[in-house]
Design a protein that fits this description.
The protein has two helices and 46 strands. The chain has about 775 residues and is mostly beta strands. The strands form ten sheets. It has a 22-stranded antiparallel beta barrel. Strands 1-4-9-10-7-8 form a six-stranded mixed beta sheet. A hairpin with a 4-residue loop joins β36 and β37. The chain is globular, with a radius of gyration of 26 Å.
Amino acid sequence: MNRHTNRRLGLLAGSALLLVAASPALAQTHSMGGGPAIEPGDPAEPGPTNLGEVIVTATKRETNLQDTPISISVVNSEDLSNRHVQSLIDLADGSVPGLRVATFEARQSALTIGIRGIVPLDANQPAREQGVGVYVDGVYLGRQHGLGSALLDIERVEVLKGPQGTLFGRNTEGGALSLVTRKPSGQFGMRAVAGVGNLESYNSELHIDFPALGDFAFKVDGGIQVQGPVTSNILPGEEGFGQYDRRGLRAQVRWTPTDTFTADLAMDTGLDKNTPFYSQLLNFNPLGRPVVPWNSPTVPSGSIRDLAPIVIVEGEARMTVADIGVPQQWSTDETSGADLHLSWTPTDTLEIRSITAYREVDVDQYDNIAGAHRPPVVGPNANFSRYSLAGLWQHQFSQEFQAVGNLGDRFDYVGGLYYFRETVSDDAATPSTNRWNADGTGYTILDPTPTIRGFRFVDRASTAHSESKAVYGQATWTPAVMDDALHITLGGRYTWDDKDGVLSTVNNAATNFTFESSVDRFDPLVTVAWDVTDQVNVYAKYSTGYRAGGASSRSLTYRSFDPEEVQAYEVGLKSDLFDNRVRLNAAIYAMDREDSQIDFSLVTVVGASTRNTLETINAPGTTKIRGVELEGLFQVTENLRLSAAYAYTDTEIPPTQNPFTGVVQPVFIVFTPPNAANVAADWESSFSGGVFRAHIDASYADATQTFDQTEVKNDSSFIVNGRLALTDMQPTPGGPMVEVALWSRNLLDEAHVYRRDPANRATIGDYGNFNAPRTFGLEVRLSY
């Protein structure tokens, strides 16, 4: 580590010691910021210096976070506001150290989400799956696409770490990211938000809770989030890079005809327009090869062509103006869906639920992010600048039935049936849009208006179908021993997965490559938990999970691959200490994964296009993932609250044969730093008839690999966010409550390369993408 990295780690460690000094134990699970109030009768009643209880639904029932023997982090609505989190992409700052979020390539239109070293690199193809399940109100979102959409009135985000193969099912081998929205209350309430910021940004929200009409309650949420380009495009009339325009609308109705029955119907639609981050040339000729002039008619073997005079190499700072102007249109993600939740409580000890959902994603991708910074690397009068044009269309249906209940005071259970079906299609083309002049001092545009579905040279087109059925159950028994302090949980899920697909086009030629897969499996769970005291709990857990197999649509032959499977062992501690002023928890885990899915890519020039061929290979042997996760929360005084979190992750994959070279080589897990940490401080005090709130947080992460097949890493990161707010002000009696806030993300304007691609070192150099710059703004909130 360099001295800057050591200083950053020292700052985080020093802050964390404020928590460590308060207790002999450390912890991994907490609610950052405030949580719901403790219920009467709990060991410590809520007070000005006590931490409130946090309710989670990780076990399909509402439980106290501290009594739930699962490693969970909770980000509540206050935390989201403090960090100005508007989309899941904003959680890429590392505010939850064990959660990793990154763009696929440099595109905001699809997010890679990982937990505990389970981070799929390219899960955005139709026949490929995520390793971390993303859920909204219990509904699984089958694709990476659309995950960057605007968040609409989120009550909390639960980050469930480790395999969730029993209650959440397929493709949750690393964990689950569960988003819980606010529901209609039947009482009038309205909240409005308006804000402006740098980079031509503005945002607005409107949330209306309508008064009940008989047995019906209604709620509507809408939001707009707009930001201008991070890097300007010098081609007139074309979009810049790193900008977005997100709009969303959600409507809910709740029907409660009796005290024992509730029906919740929700419908949503969203439009996420965005452009990718600019890919910069970070260095030139890092291998030190002989360089021939740019206008040389040929390049001898072992040599490299010089750069055109107008191409800029910038590896230290984020470019605010592109050196090459290119055609660039908005990428668009259109998402929509409806879900119906039914709940019937026939007795005091049984609740029967049904969740029915249908969702669609429609993506038009335009990605011309690198100009002359990546292949094709060419000379005079030749074509360059790869425009990745792709479309993806997905629709899914799911149905789940749950029975949640108890038999007396000693036996709680959850049982369920699950069904999921989806169809996904995609296609892609990669034409070159620019042509050099004779001396490299200028260029012309070949096609200023390429289209997704128009006439073009199609690199690939495919369609895949998936169907998954499951039956699951989990029960917790509290035997009459040890003063009822022992709790034993057994669970299991039996799954039937069927998939098939066809790769219908390769390199603009019709093909008929197909694959078909049928897998059934059982995933068990065993947990033993012990209440050491009323305030300290320990647990040990064994669980398994898997990510379904599939086939690569970027392959020339639609090469298929098998599922990957993980066995996980975990011990943890959860504690509320010193009259509930300190919450400290810890988890230590080991995961062994078989048949790890490893991506190998090869970029080639095919005619006027540049093709990225990708083959996915199951690694031999056992992949080992080991880690420690610590989190703590300390209510120092009535006014001051401190929090800290740390995740250590060690990964090792057996060397795997590269299908393009035939060489057995080292491979790596991407976007998984060995060390990641976050510290935060929150201050709250009375001020001139209202409340003054101040928040600051800092997150650090080590450098990581960004491609499975190369050891080259991105940069370490250190991001600081802050917010100052005057809230709970009521300027006029009976008028709205007012909050005025100043916020900043990446307050120190730190710049780091979060994605580095060394695939073209032999022909030009590394290229990559920098994180988002400092953003800041003013926000006003009104509530009735």
